[in-house]
Design goal:
This protein is mainly beta. The chain is built from 7 helices and 42 strands. The N terminus and C terminus are likely disordered.
């Protein structure tokens, strides 16, 4: 069967830059593969049909259509051609072009010795250990595993378990005996290699086929008997565990398409040859338990136990058949993994940031298992060290302003708004009074009824962590609060000094100036003042400490200002969660009595009181005139006034006599002021 050309667009045939072919398979879709040689072939059915050579549209303007590298990702095929990355979407049969980004690839640096240099944090802060090499090495990433690399040239075959930090040679063995410590010492010319999750196959120009397992212990291969299997266009691939296929393209004499000659090699059958001194496999995959009843079977499971910023705990469960009534014996293995920095066995700069989400893998394998265990691959678990999207925080609200009758829920839902007086808020969040009052609409659907808080009692919210609709715990990590409208009529109970800071603490003023709006104070930019920081020494110990929770007893104290506050809360403790835990909530502050008046206020109060008193007297006196009590009061007042006048005359006479001495003309006597009191 020949594939017909489905597009009339002109295309340029691709070729591979190396003299030896490569065969790249999709890491997940086993039927999709790319053959790189003098011609390039792309298949979606594992080379089961004839194929035309793979070509790139002429409109892409490729000067020399020579492929230097290729890689599968999702539904895309990436090809490096003429120092550009061409993207082929094989599901839509479309092409695109981009430039190579240095941050997206792993580079090997060559001198008499090689070492890996990395572009991504944290590996970019150090280099891998050096290793010997003797040519330009190709790097092959093992599918289904993370960090496992094979490096090879015609005379070299190297292996790394940890993305090139440590690189070792692949040994050549016969039984338990090591024949050569490297492929270089075996004096062979490597033509092509193939790998799957745990197997390695090598074909050489000397018609040799080598096979080995990719174990956690130093890897090795064995040599099978010589067979006429090599050709210049031959390439290797694994069809299934233990089944190696040697693939060779053959051109059809009558058609422009190519057919593919396939030679299957049953590795398991070859390993049974007594010449190799290989024992039977004593373990097997869980899917073939029924085939292993006569010998030990192993079933492997991994379960995550606990995690924290420093270590990750696992429990691996092993089942061995034939020892109990139900046919299985259970073994538990506890595994504790730590970051390399916490082990103290690596460069201090070689560590990832606790503030960044990452992905890691854990692989459990059976050490020193027989090479005949072709079906038993390492068990890997993908670990997402990041945010659980189901987590959220809410503020505990057991006593609300509605439950106490201060506010009404129906009123709050009816386009309710409130006024913030100009002297209590600053739209720039710098603590300066505004020039006008602010009317704020209240969103009941988002905030609900405000939490009730007494103004003169130190307060901080009770923060709850929830996962979906299930309560998890009370949050005791460090967090920050900010009134979203800029209200500043509250203060913090601790200062930087009383909070025992060793460096200058962050605050909202500096954070807003540095990062702008909206509010960006979170776990990624938070720096604890309790950690030593040469760039922020404690210069102003009396500033307010604006971080709540954690190791301190810091709280908020409100001033004489009743009303609604809307707070933004953000968890800033980087050790608590990788999630961005933040929310909005409202409170109602009550109980603030009017502030005492000053001197001007006292004068105004007295005037108002005297006016009200005069009105009252004018109203009450006429009603009291006919009564005997009023007459008695009148006689008492007349007598009092008479006595006062007599005293006043005496005082005025003496005063006039004294003042007239030396000042008034002789014989002059002043006339007493006043007169008789009218009765």
């Amino acid at each position: 069967m020949v594939f017909l050309v489905t597009s009339s667009a002109r295309r340029d045939r691709l070729s591979f830059s190396s003299t030896t072919p490569r065969l790249i398979t999709h890491p997940c879709k086993k039927n999709i593969a790319l053959y790189l040689g003098k011609q390039v072939f792309f298949t979606t059915n594992n080379f089961e049909t004839s194929l035309l050579p793979f070509a790139i549209p002429t409109s892409m303007q490729v000067r020399v259509p020579e492929v230097t590298s290729a890689h599968f990702t999702s539904s895309l095929l990436l090809l490096v051609v003429a120092q550009k990355v061409y993207i082929y979407d094989y599901e839509n049969d479309s092409w695109n072009v981009t430039f190579v980004r240095s941050g997206e690839r792993l580079n090997a640096v060559f001198s008499p010795q090689g070492m890996f240099k990395y572009s991504d944090h944290p590996l970019n802060r150090s280099l891998g250990l050096s290793f010997d090499y003797n040519g330009t090495l190709d790097i092959l990433i093992v599918p289904g595993q993370r960090g496992i690399l094979l490096l090879w040239f015609e005379h070299s075959l190297l292996f790394s378990h940890n993305a090139g930090q440590l690189v070792d040679t692949v040994r050549v063995k016969k039984g338990d005996q090591t024949l050569f410590s490297s492929m270089f010492e075996a004096s062979v010319t490597i033509h092509n290699i193939a790998v799957n999750e745990n197997e390695l196959a090598v074909i050489t120009r000397e018609d040799n086929l080598y096979y080995g397992n990719l174990d956690v212990v130093p890897s090795s291969v064995i040599k099978f008997a010589d067979q006429p299997i090599w050709s210049e266009a031959a390439a290797l691939m694994f069809r299934s565990p233990g089944m190696v296929e040697i693939l060779t393209p053959l051109q059809d004499a009558a058609f422009p398409a190519f057919d593919f000659q396939k030679c299957l090699v049953n590795i398991q059958a070859l390993l049974m040859d007594p010449e190799f001194h290989i024992g039977r496999c004593t373990v097997c995959d869980p899917s073939c338990l029924h085939q292993c009843s006569m010998h030990s079977c192993l079933k492997r499971q991994i379960q995550v136990m606990v995690s924290n910023p420093y270590s990750l705990g696992f429990q691996a469960t092993f089942y061995e058949s034939g020892h109990t009534l139900d046919g299985n014996t259970k073994y538990n293995l506890d595994i504790c993994l730590k970051q390399q920095q916490h082990w103290g066995r690596t460069n201090p700069n070689f560590t990832s940031s606790l503030k960044r989400a990452t992905i890691s893998t854990v692989t459990v394998d059976i050490a020193n298992k027989e090479i005949s265990c072709v079906d038993v691959k390492p068990l890997s678990t993908l670990i997402s060290i990041g945010c659980d999207l189901d987590k959220r925080i809410i503020i505990q609200n057991k006593i609300s302003a509605c439950s106490k009758g201060i506010l009404d829920a129906l009123t709050l839902q009816d386009n309710y708004s409130f006024i913030i007086q100009k002297e209590f808020y600053d739209p720039s969040f710098q603590g300066q009074p505004s020039s006008q009052d602010l009317r704020v609409p209240y969103s009941y659907s988002q905030l609900g009824c405000p939490l009730l808080v007494y103004y003169d009692t130190p307060w901080k919210p009770v923060v709850e962590l929830w996962r979906k609709d299930t309560f998890q715990e009370i949050v005791d990590a460090e967090y920050v609060l900010l009134e979203v409208n800029g209200q500043f009529s509250y203060r913090y109970s601790l200062t930087a000094q009383s909070a025992l800071c060793t460096s200058q603490p962050q605050n909202w003023t500096t954070m807003i100036k540095e990062f702008g709006m909206p509010f960006l104070w979170n776990r990624e930019n938070y720096v604890s003042c309790h950690d030593s920081n040469r760039n922020a020494t404690l210069r102003w110990p009396d500033v307010q400490y604006q971080i709540l929770g954690g190791r301190t007893t810091n709280q908020i104290i409100f001033s004489h200002n009743n009303g609604i506050y809307i707070f933004y809360i953000s968890i800033v403790d980087p050790y608590y969660s990788y999630c961005k835990l933040e929310t909005l909530f409202s409170i109602y502050v009550y109980g603030a009595f009017p502030i005492p008046l000053g001197f001007a206020g006292v004068i105004i109060l007295l005037l108002i009181s005297s006016m009200l008193g005069s009105v009252w007297v004018a109203y009450k006196i006429p009603k009291l005139l006919p009564t005997r009590r009023v007459h008695r009061i009148r006689r008492f007042v007349v007598q009092l006034c008479g006595r006062c006048k007599t005293a006043c005359r005496c005082f005025q006479f003496r005063a006039s006599s004294t003042s007239g001495m030396g000042t008034e003309p002789p014989g002059h006597h002043p006339t007493p002021q006043g007169g008789r009191a009218d009765h």
